[in-house]
Amino acid sequence: MVDLEFFLEYYEFLKQEKEKGKKIIAYMSHDNIPEELIDAAGFIPLRLIFSGNDELMDRGADYLPTSTCSFALSTIGLFSVKPNKYRFLDLIDYLIVSNHCVSDICSSEIICKYFDIPRIDFYVPYILSENGLKYYRLELIEFKKKLEEIRGSSISNEDIINSIEKYNKFRKNISKIKYLDISGSDKLELYQKALLYGPKILELRDFNINNDGQIKIKNKKNVILTGCSIFLGDDLIEIIEEGGGNVIFLDTWVGDVYFSQTLEDNWLDQQKENDPFDILTEMFNRNTYTDHVVPNFMEYKIKKIVSIINNLKEKLGISNIGVINHIIKFCDHMSLPREQLKEKLQAKNYFVLNIERDYARASHGQLSTRIEAFLEMI
Q1: 74 near 38, Cβ under 8 Å?
Q2: Which of 51, 89, 267, 370 is the most buried (most CB within 10 A)?
Q3: Cβ count within 10 A of residue 210
Q4: Both ends of the chain: CA-CA distance in Å?
Q5: DSSP per residue over 269-322, as a string?
Q6: pTM score > 0.85 for this model?
Q7: Does 277 map to a domain?
Q8: pLDDT-flagged residues of the chain (< 50)
Q9: Is residue 137 part of a domain?
Q10: Is 270 part of any domain?
Q11: What distance in Å separates the CA atoms of residue 57 and residue 55, rounded to the nearest whole number?
């Protein structure tokens, strides 16, 4: 669990960046937001990867129905309550309103309206097709224009290419975390810190991913966590570990799903003289594991999970690996296909547990019981 000292250090980091004249561009923590363009503009992307608790959900419910995604309610609650450790939220200059899901749009619009934060619109196609790619490319161009208006000058192609290379190197380095000889909670903490700092994290002395050893967590039942991410402030992974489990692999956006989205160095070198929007569009085209890939999301999802399990068994010599499919309550993207995912994986003889939950502490006892029972089966 990330401690208070981290939040204080992060506040100082953002404050120093603002003193250099940089803008802080925040957005709900979903994929396909072109952070490379934000970086090329000389700005700082701030991913809102903060979940919350009962109080934050309740405050969010002052603005949206309680049948809204618990993460979205908590994010609104953050801006309403403004807990002291999250005071860096006051440094935000703009908020991106995007359409990963209905809750994303509604909560982002509410935050902009009621907490007086200027908005930048960026919409993403759901269909991965020729027309979808054309639409995404047009959105990239419009997004660049908005960033240029904010900074008062143009963004060169060279700056965009440099940012693409920087973020590609960053993702490649952070992707090494998945095979470190550390617990799942420690991996998650590294992923969370990396997402907040971005490429700057590689310059911090206390951030070490140079561990080539294999995972040696003993007397634990190994599981893959898929579905919804675990955000800062959520103690789900601690509950799993207390029940005797170890999250050996995080198949979530705050985890391998984001950091595995890298480009081959040779391919990127060949594209340097081309339009950088072609590169960014190709990155979107290759992102086949996002739930925006319609209609083949489930097919890709099953294929990836099976590949992860087989790779872990071969690389680490582990015999049994379970799958916990984490669904944040009222997350339509993950809740609607949950039974189909479970059935298809069970048909391949994998142990699967669907967990649908919010952030209420009152449900921890029941949650712990279900997880412990599942781990006994593995």
Answers
A1: no
A2: 51
A3: 7
A4: 26
A5: HHHTTS-HHHHHHHHHHH-TTSTTSBTTHHHHHHHHHHHHHHHHHHHH-----E
A6: yes
A7: no
A8: 213-215
A9: yes
A10: no
A11: 6
